[in-house]
Structure formats: C-alpha cells, structure tokens
C-alpha cells in the first residue's frame, strides 16, 4: 500500500515524520500499489480521498479542515488520534488510542546529552510569517526549525531540557521522548482542536499559553487577515513596517522568555506506555491483515 501524508509548499516536521517513522513500524509494507493507502500521522481524515481506494487509518486525526469523511467499506479504521476524532466519525471510544507519532517512543535515546536548557519550535506557518529565529536569539532560547530534516529536529528535541512548542508534533514528539514541554497556543484558531484531540488520549490536562506575534504578518493572521497585503509595500511605509517588525520581535522575545518560567507538561509514564502498547497492537493487526508474511 501507499503511505499518504500531507506535504505543503514547505516541509513540516509533523507530516514528514510519517516518512521517517512509519516504515520502521511497518517494515516492507509500503510500495506504489494504488489500491490501498495508509493514513497515519496528521489531520488527514479528509472527505476527498479517492472513493475506490482502501483507506487504512492508523492514529490519524480529524482537524475540521473539510467535512468529516463518510465512512464506508473502503475505510479500515484501526485507531484514531483522540476522543474528538472518534466522536466526530461516530466510532466507539475504544478507537481513541493516540497519534501514531507517539511511537517515536520506541526509538528514543534516553542517554542523549542535554545541550539546551530551553528550545522553541514554532508552527511552520509562524516560521514563514514571523521572525522567530531572531526572537529566540534575543530570549536566549534555542531555535528548532520545524522545516528541518526529521533526524535533526529529533536530535534537537532530545538534546533539550524543556521544549516550548507552537507546533503540535513538537509537543507529541517531546512527550514521547520524555522531554517536558510547554504548549503555546497556535496563532491560527483552525489548529486548536487538534491539540485537545491528541491530549485526550494521554489524559493530559492541556493548558496552552499565549505568545506575542513576532511580526506584522503574524499579527494580521491572528486578526483573521492575510499577511500577503504587505507584499509590494515600499518607501516610508516599508521602513515603518520594518521598524514595527523589530519592536514586535523584541516583544515576542520577552514573551518567550517569560514562558521559560512556566511549569512544563509531561504525560504520565502509565499513559504513554498504554498508548504505545495499544498502537503497537494495532500495528501488528495491520501487518497480520495486509502483510502476513512480514514479521515485526
């Protein structure tokens, strides 16, 4: 079967984690066979997947970006990301197992040397519109680029004592790697529901913290407007906006520094081990059904 995952104009750590992790979980399963596809890490339970293709669901979530999919005989659901996804799709609560990215737990390096007291992972859209690398420098917080190659991001997370993250999979992976994390409220409200969906499967009391915008474009997004309207601005207006951007970056850095004083979150050992165990059980069931010759 094919491994499906979302890929936008920029690589995104959470989505690219599919290509890095799931071939380890399902060795030898993926090929170019168009008759079946796996929906794994991410909010990829859309309403527009091909009608005639078998859709194997393993820890995916519904993000509200489209109407919920209408489930028929082509949907083979083994588990979903959390309670919200299960309710929305009309599934029994037992299907709420956890985001499949949690299985990075099985590949962690507990002896990794800690190099950074605090690290920050912005959402890739915030990285595109904001000035977070500079804000991190000003706040003395290590910057982790969510568009960097997956091994690089994993190494940086494990090398951190605490991760501040606006990227949901920054929190998911940090938690699975047993690195305490501070959730930062995404600027785009469209992303909020996903966090609670994932957290419900791990019994995490999610308390995301707000943070200041690091640029004019980010602030426009917060107000529900497009930052693209700044394209092509020249002259005095451009210089004014550049000055405003610098001030906003400084204030974002101050906000980021304040978040280093927040008590971080971490799911209990019992919760993470329960989720990992259930995900591995579902993975074995998928292999037994679709590739019985493959041993795991």
Labels describing this entry:
296 residues, alpha/beta, Rossmann fold, four-stranded parallel β-sheet, transferase
Structure description:
Keywords: Transferase. The chain has 296 residues and is α/β, with parallel strands linked by helices. The protein has 2 domains: 2-104 and 272-290, no CATH class; 106-267, Rossmann fold. Helices cover 39% and strands 12% of the residues. The strands form 2 sheets. It has a 4-stranded parallel sheet. It has a 4-stranded parallel sheet with strand order 6-5-7-8, with helices on both faces. α6 links the parallel β7 (160-165) and β8 (181-183). α4 crosses α9. The radius of gyration is 20 Å and the shape is globular. The model has no long low-confidence stretch (mean pLDDT 92).
Helix content: 25-40%
Mean pLDDT across all amino acids:
92
Architecture of the largest domain, according to CATH?
Answer: 3-Layer(aba) Sandwich
Main beta sheet, described? 4 strands, parallel
Low-confidence stretches: none
InterPro entries: Polysacch_pyruvyl_Trfase
Keywords: Transferase
Domain Polysaccharide pyruvyl transferase: 73-184
Pfam families: PS_pyruv_trans
Structure, briefly:
With 296 residues, this protein is of the alpha/beta class. The chain contains ten helices and eight strands. The chain is 39% helix and 12% strand.
